[in-house]
Recover the amino acids of this structure.
């Protein structure tokens, strides 16, 4: 069985500072991995995904994530935070072989950006 | 058209009411999903439809009844709900339910309040 763990339920950074949101997965095989963002009272928007191939994945809004198999991690980063980045971020995984599209979500990390 | 639409945006209903949530996508996706999201929690999968057939029911109470009339539409019929069913209900779609092309696109959600 696969699980996804997000370290830190709340991260606060200053505007212009580095954003680092941590995600670790537990799986016997490398899974598909995703980062979603959710603004208040809205649905989830896909930031980026890792399926196969390049381990450094670039997404929208300047975010990127690196898949590290040796560390079973998929941390999300952005060099310079903007006020508009304040939102809830979810890391999610999915096993190969298509578990009928079942996304396994982490518990989420709320990002606050201070002016 | 690259979006998933959901109606209504907000819904307030009594415990004896019957109501329906609607979801629509025109991306040619053949998998559609219903999720329930409580405040400050990740989405929880309720149902998966693959090629208009129900493929996953995550032990959801029978007061929730999904329906997939065609490949573009997904309904969730509600009857005799309880106050604890109040939540954000998210619809999602993906090209298929498994394999590489499994990125899920989420709608904005319906905020349901049961009185």
């Amino acid at each position: 069985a696969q699980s996804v763990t997000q370290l830190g339920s709340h991260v606060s950074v200053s505007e212009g500072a580095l954003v680092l949101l941590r995600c670790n997965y537990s799986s016997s095989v490398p899974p598909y991995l995703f980062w979603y963002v959710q603004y208040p009272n809205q649905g989830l928007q896909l930031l980026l995904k890792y399926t196969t191939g390049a381990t450094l994945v670039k997404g929208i809004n300047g975010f990127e994530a690196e898949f590290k198999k040796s560390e079973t991690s998929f941390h999300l980063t952005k060099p310079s935070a903007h006020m508009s980045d304040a939102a809830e971020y979810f890391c999610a995984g999915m096993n190969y072989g298509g578990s009928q599209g079942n996304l396994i979500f982490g518990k989420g990390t709320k990002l606050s950006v201070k002016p | 058209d690259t979006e998933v639409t959901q109606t209504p945006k907000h819904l307030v209903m009594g415990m004896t009411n019957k109501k329906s949530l609607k979801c629509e996508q025109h991306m040619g996706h053949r998998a559609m999903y219903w999720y329930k999201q409580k405040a400050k929690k990740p989405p929880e999968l309720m149902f998966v439809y693959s090629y208009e057939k129900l493929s996953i029911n995550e032990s959801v109470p029978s007061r929730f009844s999904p329906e997939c009339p065609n490949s573009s539409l997904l309904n969730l019929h509600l009857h005799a709900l309880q106050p604890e069913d109040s939540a954000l209900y998210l619809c999602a779609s993906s090209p298929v339910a498994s394999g590489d092309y499994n990125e899920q696109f989420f709608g904005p959600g319906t905020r349901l309040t049961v009185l």
Remarks:
- The longest strand of chain A covers residues 19-26.
- Chain A has a mean pLDDT of 89.
- The two ends of chain A are 41 Å apart (CA to CA).
